[in-house]
Amino acid sequence: MPRRIEPCIPVLINRPPVGPQWAFEVKWDGYRVAVHIEPDRVRILTKNGHDWTDRFPAIEAVARSLGVTAILDGEAVVVDDQGRSDFNALLKALGGRAGKRGSDEVILYAFDLLYVDGRDLQKMELSSRRHLLGNLIGEGQGAIRFSEEMEGDGQAFFDAACEYGLEGIVGKRRDRPYRSGRADWVKIKCKRRDAFIVVGYEISGSSIRRLLLAARKDENDLVYVGSVGTGFSQVVARELKEMLDLLKVKEPPISMKTGLSVLFAQPTLIVEVEYRAWTHDGKLRHPSYKGLLEVQDNAAIYRMESQASPL
Known about the structure:
- The protein is of the alpha+beta class.
- It is built from 5 helices and 20 strands.
- The chain has 2 domains: 182 residues, D-amino Acid Aminotransferase, Chain A, domain 1, CATH 3.30.470.30; 116 residues, CATH 2.40.50.140.
């Protein structure tokens, strides 16, 4: 069994692809994990390779009961009473940002099978991998569930997902093998939500007025993408100011045009932001602050090149 497999990452596009070769699933809003079921243990790894097995006891217990050696790819989520994944509820269940708490509320929606009983399935086409996955876990309502596939018109599925209040959908090529990195999967979001790094801030008294944000442009470069000034309570705004005051620097960490009242910060703090779209000059449109993240929270800082469609 491979000790770890780099996950296949969906690329963000603006509308669902068309064609019978595409299959669509719900985009679950949680932590991407790989469940390694070994003869003497279960390991649950985040997409960055951190071992979070102790945080997902219900998933671990069901994985042990399957009686196979396997690697499942899926999303660890907390769902509401309507069956919709709720990322804030997930954070709360685990004890907050990068929380260490275990929670029986967290379940796994499995959508791929990469290895089973001595067979590496990565070169097998998706439709065959999912057939084996369905046979392995069934369609029960326990802590490991099968992420259902929708056939037919992707746009109609996307519209229905948005109307129901889901985050979006994922499209995958049925005929492709499993390839790590940004390859054959795409995602379309109803409301976009991504991670950005804080490079500056503006204060109002003892709290934050707005945060200045950056995305990744290349492997190590950052580019300014605008600011966010809504979405945080007074308590959160004060807490953010206290954190950023400890990270304050005299010079801006990246090239950007700002007002005289802006303070600059080491590019360390990662925040999740919801927004509608991008402006023509590469800035966030109608952003709203959603919370703090850490690298261990699977926080992948947004890369500007991921706006391009691979199709």
